[in-house]
Amino acid sequence: MEKNNSFRAKDQLTVGAKSYTFYNLLKAEKNGLVGITKLPYCLKVLLENMLRKEDGINIKQEGIRTFSSWVTTAHGSEEISFFPTRVMVHDVSGIPLLADLAAMRENMIALNQNPDLLNPIRPIDFIMDHSVIVEFSGQKNAAKQNMLAEYTRNEERYRVAKWAQKAFKNMQVIQPGQGICHQINLETLARVVWSEEDSDHGLIAFPDSLIACDSHTPMINALSVLGWGVGGIEALSAILGEPVNLIMPDVIGIRLVGKPKEGITTTDIVLSLTRVLREYGVVQKFTEFFGPGLDALTLPERATLANMAPEYGASISFFPTDQETLNFLKLTGREDNIPLVEHYSKAQGLWRDDTVERVYSEILEFDLGNIIASVSGPKLPQMQVPLDKAHLSALDAIEEIAPASQNCALHEDERILQDGDIVIAAITSCTNTSNPMVMIAAGLLAKKAQEKGLKTRPWVKTSLSPGSRVVVDYLTRAELMEPLEWLGFHVAGFGCMTCCGGSGQLDHSISADIQKRNLSAAAVLSGNRNFEGRIHPDVKLAYLGSPPLVVAYAILGNITKDITSQPLGYDEQNHPIFLKDIWPSSKEINEVVFKYLKPELFKDAQITSTQEDALWNNVSSNEKSTYDWDKKSTYILKPPFLEKIKKCNTRETIHNAAILAIFGDNITTDHISPGNRISIDSQAGKHLLSKGVRPEDFSSYLQRRVNHEVMMRGTFDNAHIQNEMTPQSKGGWTIHSPSNELTTIYEAHLRYEAEKRPLIVIAGKEYGTGSSRDWAAKGPYLLGVRAIIAESFERIHRSNLIGMGILPLEFREGETRKTLGLDGTEKVDILASQDTMDARDLIDTRFIKPDGEFVSAQLICRLDTNSELSWFKAGGVMPHILNKFKTT
Q1: pTM of the complete model
Q2: I need a labelling partner for 437 at 20 to 30 A (CA). Which of 116, 556, 731, 872 fits?
Q3: Which residue has the higher pLDDT, 729 or 772?
Q4: 10 Å Cβ neighbour count for 339?
């Protein structure tokens, strides 16, 4: 057999005047991989990757054969390796990643090696989209002012990106103000089929694929590009040439049937899908869409469904290549790649073919015709509520939050803020702003509202933050920007903004009133997440809805009103105006789409303005191989992780550990490492004050992620987190053991560190759900946490924990912190040696009560793959990679 071509799959494909080498799945089937034509499309992409990358080390013949076995069982338990085509990062995850790379280069010097050897092997798209904040809104020049404020606030951080652009190979930086990474990826970067010159094979063609430091990366699956979110720690390893290792996944086939009823938006569909799939259970599984219902969805609408994969728990949400894929490539100015995409996809069996009966682990039918208008809230994306019941949901939530207040009367005097008042209404997030159908619907609704003299309520902070600049272009051409601005939805910037917690401050008087009277204020946004405290610290109720609903709710003003039956307002003749009176028809929406959505818009949108170029060019940076750290900086400090690993012997058995905290279910990465603005009375705020930083310059935790002193103090310091050890106190509090004293989590860390005691965190189900926030692992690591024991883990967060050398342990079925009677006073002994530990082992663990009595449990070691085992035994990803340099 030919070396590295065990199944003789190498073949030639001619497209026009070019001939490409490719690894033909049909040939591989004839040469031993029986049945693989029945694989789901997403697994075919993984199989091609392994055929092309077979090296006898990371990828072996027997590993490739698992795909043939999968066809028989529709399940897998074997470890496979994947080498993505490229890596995408945004600034919030990317700047800490670059700082880690810079620290690793310095470590190379300490090893007497050339720091330039440490270089990205895979192409990196670095997109700066997470740092812009809605500080200015509701005015013409809001976007310009927010961008100026962004550069002023983030100059030190952007210096790191500017330095890295020069210091590292294979790195493209897309400067601030261009849009959201996933929408830019969808509209510009992705190729569907990639081609490049290869030293062994000549011009080679293969499926585009990526991993990215954001959990909403599966949005690109709509364009038939395999990709998923990872933490910054795992991305670091992939950038430096390590394979992404995973257990062969189950694939849930979602058969779409029917078509949406009149008036139903794609947002309604995805919120329903999120609820259904959360109930069904697709966590850590691949999902793939097929069936006749695909014909009812445009590609941007498919992207909305794929975007919320992390909200319904799936690792990916794949769509096969079909004519709609080619239509979108043409619309977005990538027509040159269409012949290769079409010919390659058909030659590989990646072209959509509903006549082939594919094998799926399970099949779920989803009828688009059954979807109803809805929102999701008040605190989880899967909490879907029919639109005519949204007000009842809000009333129930307010009753639960503050039953004594009962301050839900409708407005007699609109100058008095009430429970349920909507203080933020944001058209935001790539989930919806990438979809022209719902954006044009918002514009048309605004136009009708303007014609009838309706206005938004004065207490509502309104904003529009599109995921790419093309959105404003087509809305302007269609004369829909002016009515949106009439209602206060001026463009505030091109970035994530409100969706990722960058909603900015509320009017001081409104914020003070909410806090003084403990009001349950609300937000309505077209985003993908509404976790407690994420949107704004003063917002207790957050509802996800379509862009036109965001506009309508801004007019209504209060979430406890029934938007389907109560008037939004009155016209000049005092006639009531209802939602149905201004809701646009699908015919009206389609007419605008057909007339104004053209390829030249997408090409023009990629041209940066003179002002933007000037701001970026004014960011200074050195041109050395290593970064110049400023020890006095309050934004950028040299990461301490490698030094801490040297001091800490992670190979020791975990003995006499103290329990730092006990949490319930659905603890998000926002709970663990908040992203919101730093408050003056927080541990981090007090630290910044001691360094001479003014409160107005605190920024958010997201902006200070390369200052470990700030981030350690912010870990678990979320106002909405509940430590079960301190039922009387929400937020970052714990009980020190054995003194039984109430203290902050950060102060407890200092005491335990002085006592040289390792720490444990215990939790319920779905620990670490939400954003792929690496500091949700880095923070606990620096606090001295050695292991997390939970009922289940979110995939990305579990990987991040391992990447930092923290051991994830899982209770066995039927066993929990409650069944064991744990209250936080226990000492914990984890009776396992790293030398003998293996993936998925059962680990004997003892919880010792203050009186010496103990309970024992066998916990599942959630090191799932051999590569994860190697990372953990090395003390984490960074030492693992540096160890390789020592031996080469």
Answers
A1: 0.91
A2: 556
A3: 729
A4: 14
